[in-house]
Specification:
alpha/beta; 7-stranded mixed β-sheet; 3-stranded antiparallel β-sheet; 14 helices; binds pyridoxal-5'-phosphate
């Protein structure tokens, strides 16, 4: 059996759930993957992953892309034409961390509303939608929703609001894109199944490289027609990979072995919240926010004691639980942070 390489140091890395390294089992699955040239659509492992993820979300087809950013951006392009706009909340990943890609790549403008900490309020968005066919206005072609919400502290979007937005969108002829980088966490935390989330979106990008622990990859799901167009965009953007089955195998392994265990990450986040005086009801999944702290000072001091955290702002620290930090690591991190924060 291939041994898992030791961590680079005895660090407890709570900066992000993207820092996980493939387990021995995952590496074995990658090494043994059956592969072919995926640009020719001849990689059986990629095809299996795409079909499996599409089916999980109740969509016709899926497309493996290298990153969540590419999944989101191609997804947006599928539901919005150049010169039209996508509406989303002002803290959304697509407008905060994706380098203005919709504008730079596609001539899509984004319009944002300030939300209550990222929580979806369907009426608030609907109110802002601009109609098609009015030559004075930039038409709103799509609304984008993030679930769970990263800057919202991992919050799970309320199902009734998702449903309301969806029902309205069918009447209004507006598309819905889901940034589902952590939709797995939302489903585990809420008990709402993935197919339910999937049927409330025209396009959805879901990541294998966050809580699921794969090294690379996201899958964009949509109708077969849209995914055929997405395939062209992926190639155009340089995302057409060849023997990508080695990556897809990691994704399939993650779906088999790392999905249900997300509940453990959520428990760990609750433990951190309780130890650090954070309202546990503000922690819905695997992210914990520490507010009103001297973030750079705390982060530096924690690092010196072997605990890595993210500084979101000068006064906010973020902790993210994941596969590579076990209960003992959580307890140690809690001890270090509780002492530094005097909590
Ligand atoms: C909510 C959300 N969407 C999209 C992404 C982008 O994923 P990637 O880093 O794979 O481009 C991230 C990354 O952390 C994210 O948190």
């Amino acid at each position: 059996m291939m041994p898992t390489p030791p961590p680079p140091a005895e660090l407890i890395d709570l900066r992000s759930d993207t820092v996980t390294r493939p387990t021995a089992g995952m590496r074995r699955a990658m090494a043994e993957a059956e592969v072919g040239d995926d640009v020719y659509r001849e990689d059986p492992t990629v095809n299996a992953l795409e079909e499996r993820v599409a089916a999980m979300f109740g969509h016709e087809a899926g497309l493996l892309v290298p990153s969540g950013t590419m999944g989101n951006q191609i997804g947006l392009r599928l539901v919005c034409e150049p010169g039209q706009e996508v509406l989303c909340d002002s803290e959304a990943h697509i407008v905060t961390y994706e380098m203005g890609a919709a504008a730079v790549l596609f001539g899509i403008s984004t319009r944002t509303v300030v939300s209550d900490g990222g929580r979806l309020d369907a009426d608030q968005l609907i109110e802002q939608v601009r109609e098609h066919g009015n030559w004075h206005l930039t038409a709103t072609a799509a609304v984008a929703v993030e679930n769970t919400h990263n800057r919202g502290g991992g919050l799970v979007q309320p199902l009734d609001q998702l449903q309301k937005l969806w029902d309205w969108s069918r009447e209004a002829g507006v598309n819905v894109h889901l940034d589902g980088a952590r939709i797995w966490n939302a489903s585990i935390a809420s008990g709402v199944d993935l197919a339910t989330y999937g049927r409330l979106a025209d396009t959805a990008s879901v990541c294998l490289s966050k809580g699921l622990g794969a090294p690379v990859g996201s899958v964009l799901v949509a109708s077969a027609e849209r995914i055929a167009t997405a395939r062209l965009w992926r190639k155009r953007l340089g995302g057409g990979m060849r023997q990508a089955g080695v990556l897809a195998a990691a994704g399939l392994y993650a779906l088999d072995h790392h999905l249900d265990r997300l509940a453990e990450d959520h428990e760990h986040a609750q433990l951190l919240a309780k130890r650090l005086g954070v309202d546990p009801s503000a922690v819905e999944t695997n992210l914990v926010r520490l507010d009103d702290v001297a973030a750079p000072v705390v982060a530096e001091a924690a690092k010196a004691r072997g605990v890595l955290v993210s500084q979101v702002s000068a006064r906010r620290i973020r902790l993210v639980t994941h596969l590579d930090v076990d209960r003992a690591g959580i307890d140690r991190a809690a001890d270090v942070l509780a002492e530094l924060l005097d909590r």
